[in-house]
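Researcher: Next entry in the queue.
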Amino acid sequence: MKLVFVITCFLLPLTANADDLNSSPQDKLVGTWVVPADEDNRSALTFNADGTFELVATDPEAPQRVIGQASGTYKVDFTVSPAHLDLDARIRKPKHEEPVKRTFEMIIQMIDTNRFRISSVGLPERPKAFGKQSHVMQRQLTPPADADK
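Model: Structure for this entry, 149 residues:
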């Protein structure tokens, strides 16, 4: 009986956190994130485990119409405060033939495992704090309704 108690109370918590010790900071972001439906911005941002990302922005009034896309690589540093998120992106807009390359230096804050706050893109330098133009994104837990099309 004492052995069961020791395993349950002391060893299981250690093994439960073993994955955290072996995971990279980027692992916190892996998955697809969306802007909540109550905001005007309709974006889906997918972070992949290999350090790449994809962003799709759609028209809030016509969600089927893509108004911009970006892809590239990302790096995140949670050891600084606020945490840094850097995107090396190739941006494609529907009316432009050639993608535009751009680097974005942003800040990010994990609110919980399913939500983060991100600073605005397009600022001339990395912000020191979150401003009015920051966005909260939430993890997409279920596939979108049109995923089977």
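Model: Residues 1-22 have pLDDT under 50 and may be disordered.
Researcher: Noted, moving on.
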